[in-house]
Amino acid sequence: MNDSLFPKPPREPDDQLPHIHRLLLGYYGQPKPREPWDPLKQFIYSLLSSRTKTETTHQVVRHLQRQFASWDDLRDASLKEIEDAIRDVTFPDQKAVQLKSSLQQITHRYGKLTLDFLAQYRTDKIRAWLEQFPGVGSKTSAAVVNFSTLRRRALCVDSHHLRVTQRLGLTPRADAATTEERLMRLVPETWTAEMLDEHHSLIKLHGQKLCTFNDPRCTDCPLLKLCPFGKKQVTKSDIAAS
């Protein structure tokens, strides 16, 4: 029989990430849809959010908008004024310098303080351009292109995402850029920017609620059967209890 007359069906796409996504959806429910901000506001938020709780960063951004009539006024404020205004985030002295410098550079390069013009460029070009600014890495650039009104395909990898995916064995210990690159190979082509945003939200929530750094609740985890780390933790717990 000529096998060429009966070609094998195409391989199904890797279902690892979609399967994890479905399990987390079943456990946590649908995340609240995001209301995308313009790229500049998202840039400011993301720059301030590193190692800071989400609720705190939201409060700080709201405070900035109340204190300064425009982002131009924030850019033109003194470093001390900016540092005082963002006092509640981690490393406010460092972030004040990064924020003021970034806003100045954006203005210098484009002629005015906006990031709306980025919509005309390819995603990879946008991210490379953003990552030239102080304190901006792959996490921030991914957040800007994915969460903002730009709505491009990217996966924002934060500390929760790093921890969860490493424990699941999806990625080795690596930085956010390398982890995102590896995870994007597992992302179905059919996943939209909104779907990637939803996936980020679920993984982040899982890292906050169950797959925590110091006290992971592996016995309650909907991903336990898929997780080498979790299985070891449960085994250790069983041995200790026996």
A few lines on this structure:
With 242 residues, the chain is an all-alpha fold. The protein has twelve helices and no strands.
Structure description:
It is globular and about 60 Å long. The chain is mostly helical and 242 residues long. The protein is built from 12 helices and no strands. It has 2 domains: 39-147, Endonuclease III, domain 1, CATH 1.10.340.30; 160-241, Helix-hairpin-Helix base-excision DNA repair enzymes (C-terminal) (Endonuclease Iii, domain 2). 57% of the residues lie in helices and 0% in strands.
Secondary structure topology:
Blueprint: H1 16-28, H2 39-49, H3 54-67, H4 71-76, H5 79-85, H6 92-110, H7 123-130, H8 138-147, H9 159-168, H10 176-184, H11 193-209, H12 228-241
Helix pairs in contact: 1-11, 2-3, 2-8, 5-6, 7-8, 9-11
Q: Which terms summarize this structure?
A:
Endonuclease Iii, domain 2; mainly alpha; 242 residues; Endonuclease III, domain 1
Sheet of most strands: none
Average pLDDT value? 92
Gross geometry = globular
Q: Which CATH architecture of the largest domain would you pick?
A: Orthogonal Bundle
Subunit organisation of the chains: single chain
**CATH fold label of the largest domain:** Endonuclease III, domain 1
- β-strand percent reads under 5%
First-residue to last-residue Cα separation = 59 Å
Number of distinct beta strands = 0
Helix content: 55-70%
Return the CATH class of the largest domain: Mainly Alpha
Structural class of the secondary elements? mainly alpha
Question: Any low-confidence stretches, pLDDT <50, length ≥5?
Answer: 1-13
